[in-house]
């Protein structure tokens, strides 16, 4: 029979793993969104070239590509941060000394705030 303390640890480890997998899913969504931003920017440039009858084009600098690549990089960093947090929490569960830390969440929030502001600025600028 499994002791009550071991059952709680098992449940805690399973919850930690579910949280890790949720972060992985989130990071894949972030990277996918960044990929779409980059490809949509390239698609718009191609449509503009096809519809414009000028032989030489003065295309304004597009920031969507830079923002899209930045979003993909943030998604990749999310994977690394999620793994580090997963390992840290697993060790804390085993030592029964869990401490709450939100630096990764604060970092990701700040990154997405900056990306959101840049995308908003780009959209307003392109009107």
Description:
By secondary structure, the chain is mainly α. 81% of the residues lie in helices and 0% in strands. The chain has three helices and no strands. The chain has helices at residues 4-51, 64-95, 103-125. Helix 1 packs antiparallel against helix 2 (64-95) and helix 2 (64-95) packs antiparallel against helix 3. It is elongated and about 70 Å long. The protein starts with a helix and ends with a helix. The relative contact order is 0.13.
Per-chain topology:
Elements: H1 4-51, H2 64-95, H3 103-125
Helix pairs in contact: 1-2, 2-3
Question: What are the salient characteristics of this protein?
Answer:
127 residues; mainly alpha; 0% strand
Rg, alpha carbons: 22 Å
Q: What distance lies between the first and last C-alpha atoms, to the nearest angstrom?
A: 67 Å
Structural class: mainly alpha
How are helices and strands ordered from N to C?
HHH
> What is the residue-mean pLDDT, rounded to a whole number?
80
Instruction: Please report which band the strand proportion falls in: under 5%, 5-15%, 15-25%, 25-35%, 35-45% or over 45%.
Output: under 5%
Q: What does the main sheet amount to? A: none
Number of E-state strands: 0
Helix % is over 70%
Enumerate how many helices there are, as a single number: 3
Shape label: elongated
Spans where pLDDT lies below 50 across 5 or more residues: none
Transmembrane segments: 20-43, 63-84, 105-124
Main location: membrane
Keywords: Cell membrane, Membrane, Transmembrane, Transmembrane helix
Membrane topology: Multi-pass membrane protein
